[in-house]
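Hey, I'm writing a tutorial for new members on how sequence and structure tokens pair up, and I'd like a real worked example in the thread rather than a made-up one. If someone can provide the structure for the chain below, I'll link this post from the tutorial.
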Amino acid sequence: MRVVIAEDAVLLREGLAGLLERFGHTVAAAVGDAPALVEAVTEHRPHAVVTDVRMPPGYSDEGLRAALELRARHPELAVLVLSQYVEQTYAAELLESGGGAGVGYLLKDRIGDVREFVDALGRVAAGGTVVDPEVVRQLLSRRRDPLARLTPRELEVLGLIAEGRANASIARHLHVTEAAVAKHIANIFAKLDLPPASDGHRRVLAVLAYLRS
């Protein structure tokens, strides 16, 4: 099997290359950043890619976004993400790409045996799906309906916000004080994990969550 490795930590990158070659695989390229990964796949057309998530230049989610780009260009390309982190923004999209065939996401710290890793890569290259249970847990937690955290009164307030009502109008409609409405809205923002920003922006995000649900 021909493999391209993308890992910014040079010792781990070289260690992975040596490990895969020891098990009879060909490492076509071992690179340290996301642009180099895309170039290496274009040049070598490997059967599989092993990539980290956080790599230069930004050390955020470059590796995962590069993997998504490569899967879009080469649907037959197997991708195994090997990382310390669960990058939730793009992880679900990657795992759903190609119908979930030929893709995997493993956490570095939870691999206890090198043969498990090599076997996992083989299953992914053969069209299977391999996902660490902790990755599954975190993705499912993210997908859980955020509105389930709200009380009936908070849901009522959010519904009135979705109608475009200001706090004073909501207070009149519910026969409560504006201070009570403000407190409910603050609770809504907190329970929906909305980042601190202008109240107007957070109101829009809250309404979008309401409409999606």
